[in-house]
Amino acid sequence: MSTHEWDDETPDPVDLDGCPAVAEAELGDVPRSGAIRRYTRDATKQRAGARLGSLLSDVYYSVTVLAIGVAVAAGVVQQVGQSTPTVTRAGGSDLMPTIVGVLIGALAATVVSLAGRLGPVGAGGAEAAWWLGLPVDRKGLLRPTARRLPLAAAGVGALVLALLDGGLLDDTVARAVRAGATGALAAATIVLVMSVAQSLGASRRVGALTGDLMLVVVPVGLGVAAWQGLTPDKLPVPSWPVLAAVALVVVALAWLTDARLGRIRASSLRESGSVAAQAVGAMVSMDSRELGRALSDGAAPAARRWVSRLRTARGPASALVTADLVLLRRSVRHLVQVLLAMAVPVLATVVPELSGQGPVLLAVLIGGYVAASASAEGSRCAEMAPILDRLLPLEPTTARRARMAVPGIVMLVWAGVVFMAVGSWLGDPAGWFVIGMAGVPAWAAAAVRAAYRPAPDWGSSLVSTPFGAVPAGVGAVLARGPDIVVLGLLPTWIALVLGNASQTLGIIQIGTSFIAILVASSTSTKTLSERMLDAQKEAEKQREAAAAGR
Amino acid sequence: MVKSRSVVQAKKLLVGYGGAPVCAPVSFNLPEGRALALVGANGAGKSTVLRAVIGLVDVAGGALTVLGAAPDERSVEFRAKVSSVLDDDAYFPGLTVAEHLYLTARGHGMLGSRELVAELLEEFGLAEHAKSLPTALSSGQRRRLLLAAGFVRPRTLLVLDEPEQRLDLRMREDLADRLNAEKEAGGTVLFATHDPALVRSVADRAVFVADDASPLLMPDEAAERIEAEP
After folding, report:
1. Within 10 A of A91 (CB to CB), how many other CB atoms are there?
2. With left for phi above 0 and alpha for psi between -120 and 50, is residue B96 left, alpha or beta?
């Protein structure tokens, strides 16, 4: 120890009992947490400017939007249920319960993953800074937040299960209601268990990884079971007495969560609150990339075991590609997504009950887009913080083309495997392999175009839709990326519909892939119609200038 | 000679994230009525040590006691006695400057908070902005609001993370006076800083936080080290 140590080596400690050493005013009783919440709410209300009329209008608007959303979803599910031909196994049994089972398993895994990433209990921003330091019972401060997520999960669980049961399985209303109640209770149970785990000190990363693992294991497990012929004839729905017992468990968990709210550490509350605020902001502004960042950044490890020497970086473009490769290699979640996205179309071709042109086309479309998006994390990061793009001496167009390299490599593997499987199923593996390879640049272009899409212009005029008012042009913004998947890969889709990988379609696919690269390399944020209007105005100006000159 | 009692005791304290320490072990005793400065380069680990003291970061090794026990911010008694001003720049959008201070004072059971808040607003140059929303303040004024919130409540230990940031020279001098008054009133101050003047005028000792070793220094030595930094 240093010679500058204060007088005593081991002085007696000042303990926690007794009054604080410094207080500029007399101390009274500490208020209850409810009084703190009320004070904050009332002071905010005084200058909120919202009147009863506008409040009622907001409530009416929300209820109407929710009702329309539910009605549309119910209609779509019913339509899908009616239009989908009965998918049966060789033995004659219906495969739809297995498909619904996969969807329910994926939903449960998503709830686990989201609850893990969001906390589930959090206090972000001002609440963390101004409430958590107060010597009041934190339970009262956190109670509303702690109730919000289980209730939201229960609502979504009830809705999805009731819709799936009533729509796809065509069950009776009574059974659909019971399925809805099962969904609500199951979702609430998951979130409450995660809340208890949070109060016991479980890290958000563990919850997130558990959910991710479930997301892989459940669908793949059920898919393999279906392949082996292990499919249920009907999905079991618990009886009312069983549901009542589960409801008691939910109540007990809610009580336990409430009792342990004060045991959650401020660091955990701050982290969760910050993630939730970022996620809500991303949802309100319809920014899926920001939502992805909000839900994935906090679940990443704080340190790396090894440092990449970036040996393959030999120049600006290769440095960019190397950085993207390192990013992808470090993101286990995205690598798993790629594998899953590869497995789904392959399963669709090898499970006889699913091997129809429609299901295979859908599996290739969705699987391909998921795989391509998963491999474009570098572009998404660059869109938010273009650090490398600015540091390296590269033209923006060249930088975007370089960023297509990693998605291109990933999609080369993906397309090789998937289209060989398609070729084995439809015959002519070589022809399908060529079609698949020809489409690889288009997939990479779509991923990069989607990653670099601009945010919607919230200052533009609003358009009324059944789902509420949205800025004009938001659809065009959200379509950047998917538009290339649809149009740039049109020859592939035609080949899949026809079931014929002709040489002509392969050549056309090479052409459309080339166009897709040109479109995705463009840094213009305007839509095609806006660019046409600009070109028209420019031509008019030139005509006027020429006329004036004459 | 009266034996001074310790408010914070760190013995070979290791702090970090994910089990990886961010600096060399730190050892110090901080008796009541004294001030200790943590100095060192950016990223040296000063803020992480402060966060460990207030219970926001787990201790990765060694021993740390605050007010006679391991720091646990979940304890109401701990929160009642440890006042901290970190770099939080978040405010309730509907609450005025004065209301943020009322919330803190009343939340700690302070009686006569009206007079106290008025005094602090005056002292920190925020009297004219008492009814303003924090969003209308400059970053320096918001920093002053955070500092005022640290003093508007009762405390035994005051923890400040680079309190001089975004303050003008006059306000830095006033802050130094304020911190010296805090010591005279029996309060204990632990602060991280890059300001040699603040170290010289307020600190009784300083810890130079670094990767290889974190020695305990006299204020002048610590100030010289700060001034010698590139």
Report:
1. 7
2. beta
CB-CB under 8 Å, A7 with B31 = yes
Peptide bond into A120 cis (omega under 30): yes
Compare CB distances from B79 to A27, A134, A263 and report the shortest one's residue.
Answer: A134
Write down the pTM of the prediction. 0.78
Pairing state between β B157-161 and B20-21: unpaired
Contact at CB, A30 and B151, closer than 8 angstroms: no
- Please indicate whether, in this complex, the C-beta atoms of A136 and B107 are within 8 angstroms of each other: yes
**CA–CA gap between residue A312 and residue A328 (Å, rounded):** 15
Q: CB distance B92–A130 less than 8 Å?
A: yes
Residue closest to A292 by CA, chosen among A407, A379, A397, A389:
A379
> How far apart are the C-alpha atoms of B154 and B130, rounded to whole Å?
21
Amino acid at A2: S
- From residue A276, alpha-carbon distances to A204, A267, A284, A315, B94 in Å are 12, 14, 12, 40, 20
Degrees to nearest 5, angle at CA A308 with A303 and A312: 155
Q: Which helix (H) or strand (E) holds B37?
A: strand B35-39
Which residues does B172 contact at the CB level (< 8 Å), separation at least 6?
B164, B195, B197, B198
Flag if B3 and A39 touch (Cβ within 8 Å): no
Q: Residue B100's closest chain A neighbor by CA?
A: A130
Per-residue pLDDT reduced to its tens digit, A313-358: 888 999 999 999 998 888 877 888 899 899 889 888 887 666 678 8
Q: Which residue of chain B comes nearest to A127, CA vs CA?
A: B92
Closest residue to A5, CB basis, from B29, B55, B88: B29
The pair phi, psi for residue A94, each rounded to 5°, is -75, 135
Mention every residue, 6+ apart, whose C-beta is less than 8 A from residue A145: A121, A122, A123, A273
Q: In sequence order, what are the residues at sequence separation of 6 or more whose Cβ sits closer than 8 angstroms to the Cβ of residue A70?
A: A159
Could you tell me the two tokens for A23? 């207080």
A185: nearest Cα among A158, A210, A164: A158
Q: Which residue has the tokens 């701050």?
A: A270
pLDDT tens profile A466-520: 556 667 777 777 888 899 999 999 999 999 999 988 999 999 999 999 999 999 9
